[in-house]
Specification:
Blueprint: H1 3-20, E1 24-27, H2 29-34, E2 43-48, H3 58-65, E3 71-77, E4 82-88, E5 91-99, E6 105-109, E7 123-127, H4 129-143, H5 146-157, H6 164-172, H7 191-202, H8 207-214, H9 220-223, H10 226-233
Parallel strand pairs: 2-5
Antiparallel strand pairs: 1-2, 3-4, 4-5, 6-7
């Protein structure tokens, strides 16, 4: 990921913090970046609270993004929410936003992140870590991406455990990617069955697979040893 893309993401994060305050609740990979993770991301994911319809947030978000000098803005609405593509010169990033009437959140500081891009430290609200981890584990189940395994490991390394209620709710109605064959579907009934299933799959991941999947997201030196770190973290899932 190019430095300019990361800089643009940081700028948008700062803009949203100033414009929307606690209404814009950050989720996804950028939360882990703010917490110190080295894994790069190419988008920003938000939940806007409290809103009933995604149509209620479109105008405000677009007006905010249009304040970025020389930015070309394109957006679309889908069943999940709003997707906005932002282009400044040759730099492209994406913002996705959905809505909720309520969301359990926590406050975190951007002190480990914003100064890298010469931006002020902010206090922002993010989705509660236990809920984020539950959703991340459910997302891994549906698409089996190693970058999801990385994020799960990072949460576990921070002593975060998944919200079991949220996890089991997602597991009951999975939306599997086409890349996941029916033979690989999770057949269990609760989080305990899922933990066993997840552990078995992670133990099969090789260092070569990690390098291929995460090479574009992490510095080479950070890839070394991830295989063992992934496996060591599994002891926390009981």
């Amino acid at each position: 990921m190019q430095t300019e893309e990361q800089r643009l993401l940081a700028k948008i994060l700062d803009l949203f913090s100033q414009k929307f305050g606690n209404k814009a609740v950050l989720r996804g990979g950028m939360v882990l970046r703010i917490l110190g993770s080295a894994r790069l991301t190419n988008d920003l994911d938000y939940v806007f609270v409290p809103y009933k319809s995604k149509n209620d947030i479109v105008k405000e978000i677009l007006e905010c993004l249009k304040t970025i000098e020389s930015a070309e803005i394109n957006h679309s609405l889908n069943s999940k929410g709003l997707r906005v593509n932002i282009k400044v010169g040759d730099t492209r990033v994406q913002v996705e936003a959905k809505v909720a009437l309520e969301m359990k959140t926590i406050a975190i500081s951007t002190s480990l992140y914003s100064p890298k891009y010469e931006l002020p430290k902010r206090v922002i609200h993010v989705v509660d870590h236990s809920i984020s981890l539950a959703n991340k584990m459910a997302a891994w189940n549906e698409r089996r991406l190693i970058r999801d395994v990385f994020d799960i490991w990072y949460f576990l390394s921070l002593d975060v455990l998944p919200n079991r209620e949220v996890l089991e709710k997602r597991l009951k109605k999975p939306q599997y990617s086409r890349a996941v064959s029916e033979e690989e579907y999770f057949q269990g009934k609760d989080f305990r069955n899922f933990y066993k299933f997840y552990k078995a799959k992670v133990k099969l991941i090789t260092q070569d697979e990690i390098k291929e999947a995460l090479g574009q997201y992490l510095p080479t030196e950070d890839l070394i040893g991830l295989e063992q770190l992934f496996k060591a973290s599994l002891i926390k899932l009981t």
